[in-house]
Amino acid sequence: MPANRLFLVRHGQTASNVAQTLGASHDDPLDPVGEAQARAVAAHFARLDLPTPAVYASPFRRAGQTAAAIADALAVPVTVLPGIQEIEVGPQWHGRPYAHLISHVHEIDLPGGAFGFAGGETLEEVADRFLAALRQPLARGQLPIVVSHGGALTAALARLLGQDIRAVWQDPRYTHANTALTQLERHGNGWQLARLADAAHLESKP
Fold it and tell me: Is residue 83 in a domain?
């Protein structure tokens, strides 16, 4: 039976998150705050006493480290899931501040109606690869916990919820702080939000 619940989690904090710059490398590790955040979200999942959880991680190091903390708390392995990694922003956006995603949003409106990064990926392309990667985990009948990245999660959520990808990108409610989690529940052929970008577990982190 296909999964009827899905958790999406952003990785813990890294140095590039603190610097607020785009285009972090695939091997950008968690910093000490990020490690504490990973432990906090892992403890939160352990308290939920979930049936048959299955933990998946982006191929990027920071997601793998966060997923490993969750998997250890749940006594399950981590499966690396290519396709759920962060948006490739391309050379024109690499190193630019996060603030430009708001102040220069007009640059993300590309010729031909696409929405994304010239020389990198569009959000539609990210959503395509993310949902393609999710097909097998969702079909296995377990409860997937998927650790990914802020921009990729926004693109995927827009697609999963049937929302306009531009509107979701510009809606601050969909912005995931480090280790914030979203819970989706399947209703019929679609998904609905049970929790969105929830980081309450960080209020009690050790």
Answer: yes
Q: Looking at residue 190, which CATH number applies to its domain?
A: 3.40.50.1240
DSSP bridge pairs for 8:
146, 182
Tell whether the model's pLDDT for residue 141 goes beyond 80.
Answer: yes
pTM beyond 0.85: the answer is yes
Q: Is the pLDDT confidence value at 206 over 70?
A: no
Q: What's the DSSP call for residue 174? A: G
pLDDT of residue 90: 96
The DSSP output letter for 167 is H
Contact 21, 97 (CB under 8 A): yes
- Cβ neighbour number for residue 46 with a 10 Å cutoff: 15
Q: In what order do the strands lie in the sheet with 5-10?
A: 78-80, 53-57, 143-148, 5-10, 181-187, 190-198
Under the phi-then-psi rule, with left for phi > 0, alpha for psi from -120 to 50, and beta for the rest, what region is 49? left
Domain that holds residue 65: 5-18+30-90+115-204
For the chain, the domain total comes to: 1
